[in-house]
Write a structure and sequence with these properties.
Four copies of one chain form a homotetramer. Chain A has 13 helices and nine strands. With 336 residues, chain A is α/β, with parallel strands linked by helices. Chain A has two domains: 273 residues, Rossmann fold (3-Layer(aba) Sandwich); 51 residues, no CATH class. At the A-B interface, helix 9, helix 10, helix 11 and strand 9 of A face helix 9, helix 10, helix 11 and strand 9 of B.
Chain lengths: 336, 336, 336, 336
């Protein structure tokens, strides 16, 4: 699970741009934005395309596509809405895949995260539902060979339980498998409780497990692996210190608005607290919480169920965007 | 999972009394306290016995025994320490059981909690490891009959997923099974992160799933069920609002100590915040966090593993305190 | 998990009648049969209605409806087919429910089986996905009150791990909850490997956990509980001795057909083996296999996934057949 | 999970030699055998050492050590016996490790198998309990540096769910990590039900996932990886066709012994059946069972619990044989 500041900002950026939608962002060169609403299922799809260095500079993000699928139904047992999300995700994934070129080659799915930690198990769970075919491509009968593409998948685990940097494992595998495309799935740490299990994020600019710790060796992208990397991320937790930090901000701002006259002098305190650099306050809170908190996270009671649904939606979308009208049944006939 | 204010206070009371240990609590009638340290495994066992109405009044808790086993090793993969904890827990449980009388009758183990929510699955996991014998007592050969006691176990689920109050399910079962003793296990919500997975609490005064919401119908104890109830509880989570509340207290107290001169006026604010009734501040925080937070909890990444160890320790202790020198192997021979 | 000879025979009876479909079973009074094929998803639905004592005698089964939904897609990751099965199951369930009368009362869902044994966890997994409402009916706002019915659910465990007969737990609960209808779900032991995970069976004549051992006290039906009981069963395993028995039959019959001339005398042996009463051969095989085999079962590698899909299909169908156009989201708003 | 004919024969060989123990196997050059009995816990440890080419020829197995730990207590909830098995396994592992030389280098643990299939999850579950240290060796304080060795671990999944041959993933990783020693853990398919969950096998001659299908590229051993490979295997299932095959043999041999006079002529049939080459009969049975059976296995109801115990025993032994008096607590302090 990564504290994904980049992805997080992608979402905020999208919302920012959405707000600007009425007024228009006409002035920004090299940035295109598109918002689609599916009212029947309360799904909003926001696509941001950064197409030039000017756009890159304006957005402080690399050239590429950033797609956000938002819906409160992601965490509900709403089969019809999940179907609709699968349909949207398949379309978007197919478009990104086509964009990335080399359509005949092998696709490698990397499920990041720890399958023993419920909210971090998203990536490994997706891997377990992928219809892999790379190992049977040579033995396919003609009627299947038309629709099937070579697909393989690995859940490399997390450094804390393997002792090996995830990027190292992936790089070794890439050398060997020589994929034309990588799709990497990861559970993310959100900044706000209200985002947990509400958003699926796609981008063709890769992913950085452990991003924000300034370690660029760990990034999985075209620069580090020599292969285009599509990233799919879903925020499933908030880390405990971030949670306190943000709640305290809200609390203080509310208190300061409703302050009785007699205490107005104290308002300076709030200003001071609010002026503390984000990083500083976060650090004080971490210190206050002590060493245990690094290991703590905030998550909803239903997390097990929601991760099961999410992995089903994402794996089905990858299967359908890759293979052509073929199900597990067809594949199984040639597997055993 | 219950927000167990009572149990929580039992722990605090024990610590309070521990502090007083050197000076003595000689003045308090009807309260006995005993602290044992097992230095080899960093285990501290504190027993508080309330023996009279005077003690009851002084402690604001019912007459009975309250035993706390504390060790940082509970959440470590330390087999030797876990063995030692099983030994202690078996002893304490056997003593409480003997105290409760009716030694020939059936023991009913109730595993409270939701087996689909990792940190709340402790009770159901203990149930799944109990060596139940009630259904085979009539067919036992003489060589086993000496050592085996009638034991049965149920995980009744939680009201949120059954639609039935837990106490209702248990009462129905008690009418039917007519046990001589009930042992109820529950995962608790701790007040502080530092207590998560560090403490096992026993008491012979019963348990209240959902305690603190003022609903006495839900208590499982001798008064409501007509049978002595031994409770075993382990704090495995902190609820999200409590977590913010307590962290903010710490943060503010630290800030107020290290405040620059120029802001001293603002200190009144901190005093005001600190003067807010606990319940009031908690309510403001809950409101700040919004409706989602009621469903959120804070827990460590290793919770799955730790709950597995805990359930193993507790189930083994119940098996050994109940049966006499007999393992699953012996029982299995007569089960199928 | 039960060795459900009754349910098994229901399926065979249905197939038998299906075979007779062209020729008609016109002569049998009090038996109606209906076969629907959904070719798009390879789903066959067979409904047998026994409507009189004559039919009861002819079929050797109690008056009532027996519905079998068969499809190879049940065990495939085929979302569209699962949707279609949910639609069919909801319809059939709604019809049976309406038939059972008392439409205003509480429905109690009983999930039989052991949630720790993957192929036996179907019932408990369904329970965990039921949208229970019984505990919040008094606090519902008018806009929900129209669509919601009181629904509750319990997974009572299995006698081997609770020490209490399942029927005892259910009877106690029924006394307390006073439901108008019970829906009981159980994983069944199939007779043939080819039936595993291919069939969902419904009936309004109840269910007998542990049927076939001649213990009628254990049945869950209108006679024993005073409430109509709809049973939903899915074969998920074959018990090991049955598996050998049936495979050996096939093997011997194939050998005897392809026997070389020189060994024709030995054919008597095969006849003898084939003449052995089913029960006798089964008993010899059990004895051959020894005491361990009682605990052994045969199941496919994908059982975990398939049980997840099945529980999702069944729970969604119960939710939709009971409540009216209302999802978990609506309910959650009033639960916490 | 592999159908491990080699390992299986190792066990049979050990038993064969055990039988010969009183008479001695003095005549066989290059083979040493040692049997230790731990009567308190019903544990038998058999060590076979093949020390020369003559021994290799006599035993039809490569030079190396083959250790078998047998106990019925492996599958019982017997904490004391499990402790004793950990002690024995740690000793044996430490001896094999020392033998393999290069004591200062990195140890790489490979957990073979599919973590989503309960009886095949042994390897991945061991990996999740390994105290990995390779990634923190550079930041260790002096007091830990003495006792800790660099340890890392990966569960590479199975070809059926990754689309990549396991040996390919491991080879890529070995190139990168450059370990001095590999320890590979796998769940095995036993030949007989009576061996399931009763035996832990160690050897320093490596392991072949999918052995017996004649594919030597898949072996993990010193020849294929350039690094010594210690294999730890536990039989946890019997595949369905083998199960029928072996049960039928037993059944037929019993029938032929108890045959009535009038049918004695038929005895030829039994002789014929018994004369069928093992492979032929197995093939006929597989064909009889049809395509579904390739995917079916026989396993006991308690398999989930037993795999949890086994993974705990094996992981603890690897941790203790590798590190020196250091627990997870010490390591955690430097991990986050």
């Amino acid at each position: 699970m990564q504290k994904n500041i980049y992805t997080d900002l992608a979402l905020e950026m999208a919302q920012h741009l959405q707000d600007a939608k009425d007024g228009g962002i006409g002035g920004v060169d090299g940035v295109e934005i598109d918002v689609e609403d599916d009212e029947a299922f309360s799904i909003t799809v926001t696509t941001v395309r950064i197409t030039s260095e000017a756009g890159e500079a304006a957005m402080n993000k690399p050239i590429g596509s950033y797609i956000t699928i938002e819906s409160p139904e992601i965490q509900q047992n709403n089969v019809a809405a999940h179907e609709e999300i699968i349909r949207i995700l398949t379309d978007k994934l197919a478009a990104l895949t086509k964009n990335a070129g080399k359509s005949g080659g092998t696709t490698l799915v990397i499920g990041l995260g720890n399958h023993n930690v419920t909210p971090d198990a998203l990536g490994p769970k997706v891997v377990s539902k992928i219809l892999v075919t790379r190992h049977i491509m040579d033995n396919l009968p003609r009627e299947l060979a038309g629709g099937l593409r070579p697909l393989c998948a690995l859940a490399p685990g997390v450094m804390g339980t393997t002792g090996i940097e995830t990027a190292e494992v992936v790089r070794g595998l890439v050398n060997h498998v020589q994929p034309a495309l990588i799709i990497a799935i990861d559970a993310l740490a959100a900044r706000k409780i209200s985002r947990i299990n509400q958003t699926i994020q796609l981008s063709d600019t890769g992913i950085s497990p452990g991003a924000g710790v300034g370690n660029m060796r760990t990034a999985l992208n075209r620069q580090t692996l020599g292969v285009p990397v599509i990233a799919i991320g879903v925020p499933t937790v908030v880390d405990a210190a971030t949670f306190v930090n943000d709640t305290m901000d809200l609390f203080l701002s509310e208190m300061s608005e409703n302050m009785p006259e007699s205490l107005k002098d104290g308002a300076d305190i709030f200003k001071m607290l609010q002026k503390l650099e984000d990083g500083d306050k976060y650090t004080i809170i971490r210190n206050t919480l002590g060493p245990l908190v690094g290991n703590m996270f905030v998550t909803p009671k239903e997390i097990g169920e929601v991760v099961a649904w999410l992995s089903n939606m994402i794996a089905n979308s990858i299967n359908m965007a890759t293979h052509d009208g073929i199900g597990r049944d067809d594949i199984n006939r040639y597997m055993y």
